[in-house]
Amino acid sequence: xxxxxxxxxxxxxxxxxxxxxxxxxxxxxxxxxxxxxxxxxxxxxxxxxxxxxxxxxxxxxxxxxxxxxxxxxxxxxxxxxxxxxxxxxxxxxxxxxxxxxxxxxxxxxxxxxxxxxxxxxxxxxxxxxxxxxxxxxxxxxxxxxxxxxxxxxxxxxxxxxxxxxxxxxxxxxxxxxxxxxxxxxxxxxxxxxxxxxxxxxxxxxxxxxxxxxxxxxxxxxxxxxxxxxxxxxxxxxxxxxxxxxxxxxxxxxxxxxxxxxxxxxxxxxxxxxxxxxxxxxxxxxxxxxxxxxxxxxxxxxxxxxxxxxxxxxxxxxxxxxxxxxxxxxxxxxxxxxxxxxxxxxxxxxxxxxxxxxxxxxxxxxxxxxxxxxxxxxxxxxxxxxxxxxxxxxxxxxxxxxxxxxxxxxxxxxxxxxxxxxxxxxxxxxxxxxxxxxxxxxxxxxxxxxxxxxxxxxxxxxxxxxxxxxxxxxxxxxxxxxxxxxxxxxxxxxxxxxxxxxxxxxxxxxxxxxxxxxxxxxxxxxxxxxxxxxxxxxxxxxxxxxxxxxxxxxxxxxxxxxxxxxxxxxxxxxxxxxxxxxxxxxxxxxxxxxxxxxxxxxxxxxxxxxxxxx
Length: 613
Ligand SMILES: [Fe+2]
Prior knowledge:
Layout: E1 2-7, E2 14-19, E3 22-28, H1 30-33, H2 43-52, E4 62-65, H3 69-83, H4 88-102, H5 105-116, E5 127-129, H6 132-141, E6 148-154, E7 161-169, E8 172-180, H7 185-195, H8 204-210, H9 219-226, E9 227-229, E10 235-237, H10 253-258, H11 272-300, E11 304-308, H12 315-324, E12 329-332, H13 340-353, H14 379-388, E13 394-395, H15 398-410, E14 415-418, E15 432-437, H16 443-451, E16 461-465, H17 469-472, E17 484-487, H18 498-501, E18 525-531, H19 537-550, E19 554-559, H20 571-579, E20 585-588, E21 591-594
Parallel strand pairs: 1-4, 4-5, 6-11, 11-12, 14-20, 16-18
Antiparallel strand pairs: 1-2, 2-3, 6-7, 7-8, 9-10, 13-21, 14-15, 15-19, 16-19, 17-18, 20-21
Helix pairs in contact: 3-4, 6-13, 7-11, 8-11, 11-12, 15-19
Bound molecules: fe (ii) ion.
């Protein structure tokens, strides 16, 4: 049974292939088109999935789309009518697109599939439409390592639903409760993303990263004016302060008056106010997530929780949730945003529509294969493609490539690391990553300013050998997808002097907080990736070698891209990013490249190619 899942026409289009209930391949369209969060039909991702499995297009039994276009249309129409004539501008701008493309999705999808795969197949007879939050819930439960679990999904909005509580048992998934638009935790967080001067739908994690620099002094204002939260976590947003129903902006003049001024201009300097707002919305979000989690625990009686939807990428909230003990175990879909809907739609179709039985991956593992579900390139292809790009490189054997990389890291070089199958979802997990020495006090600034071209407050995440995670952090759990936050252990911390304590906001950034300062946040927290020998042996071997050399099993892992660029996919993407930034060493499979040996004329001002995100 071959099922293709598709997520498209909203943000972050993707395709996923499920064969007999197993996720075989998945990729986001942005990686191929090089347009960040590309929302169009995932032509390239679909082709990749089908080709990877060696299928003929007519061997696809079913194509599952991640949401129901008619329901979404109904929501838009009713929202616009309810707010007419205030909503007219948005109506005029948004509706024609819907009429032309989205409403007639079945015909559109069938013709796209025909154009891309095989026009001789009757694609419309193979199409299934899931619901948006059911796709999220299915993406959270079916690949999880749990036979039974409570499921919580939270995002901006799909068709109507913004939050859902569900119960998964075996191959069955039952939705118990929903909260509907316009009451949305995702949209509330996005309103603060907009107001603090970041881009909605991609800047939310920057707000989360900013929060530790601020004081949560606006929590009461938010509770008193913007959102009413009940004990069971259900909530109502006060629409008097928001513009997302009627306009194309998130917040209105009343919101701006409440917080004392207009939204921050995106390129202007961040101030204490933005940090305090970020800290405040983070506190409110954590409270709601905790209450919802307690409620779904009560409703289902389960001790395992599965999470998905954009809000599940809030790893600070996830870490707190884990520490409360509301659940024994938590599993979070790594592609928690809408790209993951492609995986959920396909798995939902297999289990709920076709009655496919569920087989757990075994030994506590999940069904996401470490999220290494994208394209990979063999040595012959890498050699040919790097040569064509004009690169100077050596092909080394496995041991040598690990040793040279580990030595480069140990002397403080930034290393571009392109290995094996590309990750699915927003995080780089050691397949398309830029790596650095976590012990280096200069590394955070170097990587932010000279490699990523972005704001210097942004923290980096550590990759740590699973078997050593509890020696360095206050956690002894698997966190293979970088979705949990935990504190650096006491013995590795460096206490601040009274003068340093007195610093405010971003000035605290330059104070080293631990013996691994490049990955230690101002509040001693870190967003952890545990690295496992069975799911990514090469990455595990690299960090092990680094530990042999330095005694430290922790390195910096940041995504292989610059600000505004999708994560690299091909050997050429990796080479171009290497040549346009201060990355000093690049490895692509077994090809080893040093910056100093590359042709001068191929070096570029790379950051000019991408719009700021
Ligand atoms: Fe969503």
